[in-house]
Write a structure and sequence with these properties.
The chain is α/β, with parallel strands linked by helices. 43% of the residues lie in helices and 16% in strands. The chain contains eight helices and ten strands. The longest helix is centred in the C-terminal third of the chain and has 18 residues.
């Protein structure tokens, strides 16, 4: 089955919040079509009718406290495998695990994130979902990543030096050496040393990706594994 592209849904009953989330998505990825739904019935009908590449939804819709849970269950029944990012005012400490059990890909608590964190999370999920699609015919394998184990020199990608701060180098080395295993957020805290938070790890990984794309615009070898961590999926 071919995964639908360029069409996402924002399901949020608060219109200013819906407009903000949809606006952030459009600003980050102008090619995406963003459908906005404001109640469970309209959203459920759209999910049955449309093919979305990704869904962003709130748990509470109007007076239905757990409407979002019903919508996730509806997505699961359709066997569409559509990635879901939950954005809710419900406390993350309680609901993150519940949403994970329902196969939601990630959870952001309202008022505790900004535009940058939302976009980073959204794009990480989008990349991970697209990485699951059937691969194109294999091209000639690029040169493997070259690392200096003592971090005295910058690592090389396809023969070009990558300009990286020390923490990003450590994360790169950890992901590469542990491939193809997933490296959890908790394990990466030991590499980051300070700022032991998921958003801080994501920022370092974002810096790492940007540096690699400076020398290789097609670079896509660091895979986000929602709710768990990151994995090196490139050549070795």
């Amino acid at each position: 089955m071919v995964t639908p592209r360029n069409k996402v849904a924002v399901i949020e009953d608060d219109r200013p919040t819906s407009e903000q989330l949809a606006g952030w998505i459009r600003a980050a990825r102008p090619e995406l079509q963003v459908d906005q739904w404001f109640d469970r019935d309209a959203a459920e009908a759209a999910l049955a009718r449309e093919q979305y590449e990704m869904v962003v939804l709130d748990i509470e819709l109007g007076r239905e406290r757990h409407a979002g849970v019903a919508l996730i269950n509806a997505i699961n029944k359709l066997n569409a495998g559509t990635p879901v990012l939950v954005v809710s005012a419900m406390p993350a400490a309680i609901y993150r695990g519940i949403m994970k059990a329902l196969d939601a890909w990630d959870y952001l608590q309202k008022t505790s994130f900004d535009e940058a964190e939302f976009i980073d999370t959204f794009l990480d999920i989008l990349r991970a979902a697209r990485a699951r699609e059937p691969a194109a015919p294999a091209q000639a394998a690029p040169d493997p990543l070259r690392l200096d184990p003592l971090w005295q020199r910058s690592p090389l990608w396809k023969g070009q030096r990558i300009n990286l701060p020390l923490t990003a180098q450590r994360i790169l080395a950890t992901l590469y050496q542990r491939a193809p295993q997933v490296v959890s957020y908790e394990e990466l805290y030991d590499v980051v040393k300070s700022g032991r938070r998921r958003d801080n790890v994501r920022k370092h990984v974002s810096t790492l990706r940007e540096a690699l794309k400076e020398v290789d615009p097609a670079f896509d070898a660091i895979e986000n594994v929602p709710m768990r961590g990151f994995r090196w999926s490139g050549p070795r």
